[in-house]
Amino acid sequence: LWQKVINNIKLSVTPETYNLWILPIKPLTIEDNIFTLEVPNIYFSQWITSNQQKNIEQILSNSCGQQIVLKLKSQQDISDIIKKVEDTPDHEDIQASIMQKDQINPKYAFSGFVVGASNRFAHGCSEAVAKNPGKQFNPLFLYSGVGLGKTHLLNAIGNYIKQSTPKLKTLYVTCEKFVTEFIESIRFDKISFFKSKYRSLDCLLIDDIQFLLGKESSREEFFHMFNNLFNLKKQIVISSDRPPKELKGVEERLISRFEWGIIADIQPPDLETRIAILRKKAEEEKIYIPDDVILNIATQIKSNIRQLEGSLLRITAFSAFTGTPLTVDSVQKMLKDIIKTDNSKHITIENIQKAISDDFNIDIKDMKSKRRTDAVSFPRQIAMYLARTLTDEFSSNTIGEAFGGRDYATVMYACNKIKSKMDSDPYFNAKINKIIKKIQSK
Ligand code: ADP
Ligand code: MG
Fold this sequence. Notes:
Layout: H1 2-12, H2 15-22, E1 26-31, E2 34-41, H3 42-51, H4 53-64, E3 69-76, H5 78-86, H6 89-99, H7 120-131, E4 140-144, H8 150-164, E5 170-174, H9 175-187, H10 191-199, E6 203-207, H11 216-231, E7 235-240, H12 252-260, E8 262-266, H13 271-284, H14 291-300, H15 305-322, H16 328-334, H17 336-342, H18 349-360, H19 364-367, H20 374-390, H21 396-402, H22 408-424, H23 426-441
Parallel strand pairs: 2-3, 4-7, 4-8, 5-6, 6-7
Antiparallel strand pairs: 1-2
Helix pairs in contact: 1-4, 3-15, 5-15, 7-8, 9-10, 13-14, 13-15, 18-20, 20-22, 21-22, 22-23
The structure holds adenosine-5'-diphosphate and magnesium ion.
Adenosine-5'-diphosphate is lined by residues 89, 108, 112-114, 119, 144, 146-152, 277, 280, 305-306, 309.
GO molecular function, one term: ATP binding
Region (Domain III, AAA+ region): 103-319
Domain Chromosomal replication initiator DnaA C-terminal: 348-418
């Protein structure tokens, strides 16, 4: 019966619509006069309700000789989709880590990693390490700005080793988790367990090492574990948001250990690579995106691969939800917000300092001074927070420099303080957002 319906629909819609919207629908049950269809997600329900429901009911009623009503059941809740759009990979990493002991995320493989000039070296080193762990490139130190593939490469190494040499004990861990585990092991008197766990590894993949900054006791433990593994010729791979020499506040002896191995950075991808990445992701998600649309997105979103991915998810969700076809124009509208934030590189720390000094009526000089009166230090903290969120300066050291040579901890303290005040105080939140708008519109 369902076959009959879709054959009928096929005649009246374009092949694209048919493939996208009709083929994935599955007939479930027919009871009394209710015909239930299973659709992949709520966007399908929306689309059918507004485009095909009457038609389908008509066809069914005619074939059965009685009035048939359509009921749609979706496999996936809309909240799941929204979550998918909003989820940062970091969050998924955490979920994956709960599910798996080695905490390696199976979704990241070398096969899904697009190689271009910006990441060729880092990728090559990672593959070499995966094929010969503990042999040549040890430790491997990868660094880049946010969203450029460090976590992906670390997990790809892990997945490769797991497959090729399952007997090796490999562990992926974020530095944050390492620190938490360490602190808890002290609190719950499990320190020897902690130590033996890490010292028994064959390959340690540790992500976002910059988290060690300002964590002295954990740093000490990390150093010991590092030496231990290293002396046993176990593979260590480290990622960081900055090169070793900029890990100020981490002991020289640890940094020089990092420098014994090989250091590879990842730069923002060039246009060709961005296009290749979009194609690959679209293929993985099984969505069709016209070439001119891909080019359009790749031209505008430059700095961050996570944003490229996010934009892809967003346009597919949006287009499915509203039934808007994917054209250069429609996509431009859908991506307005993302593109605006991607242009944030035009916002400089000076812009922010100027805006804050106008708004709070203080002197820019004071913002860069050592003065600590509330009247100055609070606006200064806001400015540091904005500098960290609105500009490309992902290194807190640069930000600290711009505010009279303040250190990393001070900048992070300011950012956390402002962030939590924004979370808890809606008026403050509104005020900050107003300032942000003002800065962005300049
Ligand atoms: P980082 O850890 O450097 O912040 P991630 O590894 O989390 O960045 O990458 C962000 C997203 O971009 C991930 O979903 C990842 O799969 C994707 N990505 C990054 N680089 C590439 C690449 N070269 N090819 C394909 N996908 C990539
Ligand atoms: Mg990462």
